[in-house]
Amino acid sequence: TVKRGVDLDLSLYLVTGRDLLPQGKSYLTYLEDALKGEVSIVQIREKNLGTAEFLEIANDTMSLCIKYNIPVIINDRIDIALACGAAGVHLGQSDMPLSTARWLLPSHAIIGVSCTTPEQARKAVEGGADYVGLGAVYATSTKDVSAPGSVCGIAGVRAMLSVLEGTGVKAVAIGGINSTNLLRTLHSCASPTGHTLHGVAVVSDIVASPDPCAAAWRLGDTFRAWAAAVSPGPIGFQVTTKEKGQYTRDGIVAAAAALVDTVRHLRPLVHQITNNVVKTQSANVTLALGGSPIMAEAEAEQADLARMPGGLLINFGTLDALDGMLAAGRHANQNGKPVVFDPVGVGATAFRRATATELLDAWQPTVIKGNAAEIGALADSNEVKAQGVDSLGGFKNAPEVVRSLARTHRCIVLLSGPTDYLSDGSTVIRLSNGHELLGQITGAGCVLGTAIATFCGAASIAAIGSHEGSLVNGDMLLATVAGTLALTIAAQHAAAREEVRGPGTFLPALIDELAMLTPEIVLRTAKIEVEME
Ligand code: 3NM
Ligand code: MG
Fold first, then answer.
1. Rounded Cα–Cα distance for residues 190 and 235 (Å)
2. Which residue numbers delimit the Thiamine phosphate synthase/TenI domain (predicted)?
3. Does one domain contain both 268 and 174?
4. Digit-coded pLDDT (tens) for 235-266
5. Single pTM value for the model
C-alpha cells in the first residue's frame, strides 16, 4: 500500500513565496507563467497570512493548477489543505507531527517533510512520508538559514540520500538552487551507490525572475538533460572508453599515450590557482606538455576564464585566493570544464579541512588527487599520519580507499605515492612508474595535479558525442591516467640522465623529459594494472 505518491513528479517543485514577487506583479499571473514553464508540482508557502486570506489564495491556486493538471501542496496548514482539497501538505520539523497529519488527512494525501539531518530523514521514512525536502543545500536569502546546522551542504544531502535509498521515499533538494548550479547539484547529490534526487525545489530562481516561464523552462531543460545523460557508472560521469569496452590494460595505455599528442595539438588552456611555492614550476610543466598555462586568481576574472575551454586546477597549498577558488570552480562547473582539486595538506589543520568542505560544497571536482595523508583526511581515516603536507606510510587497502572515496565524492580519485592508485568508483588502476627523486623536490605532487589538469583539459575539448546533461564530457579517468603517466614516466627518464646527480639537476631534466615525451615513450614505459570491480 505504498501506492500513494508513486506517480508524483517532483522534478521541478515550485514553492511559492509572494514576498519575493517583483514589485507590482500579480501572484496568479506569475504562477500561471511558472505553470506554462512546466513546473511539475506547486507548494503554497505563506508565512504571514491570516487563515481566510491563505484559504483564498489556496483556492485560487487550486483553480489554476487544476487547469494545468499540477498537484498543489500546502505548507504546514493541514486545515487549509483539507479546506481547499489540495493534494497534500508539507511539514517542517516544528510543524504538525507526521503521524498526526497522516491521521487527520485522507489516506491518499501526499505528505512531505523537511529534513536537514540523516536522523530526520530516517524518522520521515519511518513515519511514512511520501517525499522529503533536503536542505538547505546552499545558503539562501529566501529563508532564514542563519542558525548553525541549517545548511546541510552537499555532504548532508548525500548522507540523507543514503538513508532514503531503497525506501521508496522520494527526495528533492532545496535552498539556493538556481539554473547556474542545478546541473552540478544534480550530479553531486547522490549516495555512494548512485541513489539520486527525484527533483529540486525552487523559490527565488522562478518567483523572483522577470520571466518565470523562461526560468522554469531553463531549470526543467537542465533536469531533463541530466536525467537523460546520467551514466550507469557509480559516479555518473560520461565515460566513453568504458562504453566502448576498452578498459583493458592495453586499451588504456594506448588511449592514454595517444592523449600526449592530443595535448600538443589542442594546446589546452590550463587555468591554475595554485600555491606560491610551485607556480613557476607548474606553468613550466604545462608548457612542456604542450598546454597553455594561465595562473589567474582574482575572483572578478573567473567568469571570463571559464568560458575558454580547457582545464582548471585548484590547489590550496597556500590559502590566499579562496574567493577566486570558489568562483573558479563554480564557473568551471557551469561551463563543463574539468576541475582538478589538490587539497594540499588538508589533514594538517582544522582550517584546511573546513576550507575543503566549503570548496566541495561550492563546486563539483572532476578529479581529487592527494597523497596518502590527504586522501586519508578526506576519507576520515586514521590509518595514515601526516607530517606537514607530506604523508608517512600508506593504506592497507588502497584500492578500496580510492574506490570508496570516488563514490562518495562523485569524481575520480587519485592517490599518489610510490604506487599511484586511481578510481572512478568501479575500476581501480594501479600505476607504478616514477622515481624517488620526485620525493626530493618540492611540488612534485602539485605538478602532478597540473599534468592531470592539462590532460583533462585536452580530453574535454576533444570529447565528441558530448552530452548536454553531463557535468564534464570526455573520458576523465583516461585523462587522469595519461597525466599521471606523463609525469611519472618523464621523471623516470630524467632520473636516468647522466647529468642528473640529485634533486637540483633533476627538476630541469624533468621539464626537458616532459617536453620530449611522445606516445611511443609512454607505450614503452607504462607500468599499469587494471582491476575491474
Ligand atoms: N526551505 P530559494 S530552504 C522554503 O532548507 C525553503 O528546508 C528550505 O528558496 C529548507 O530557492 C527554502 O529561493 C528556501 O533558495 C528556498
Ligand atoms: Mg513549515
1. 9
2. 12-206
3. no
4. 776 554 555 555 789 999 999 999 999 999 99
5. 0.94
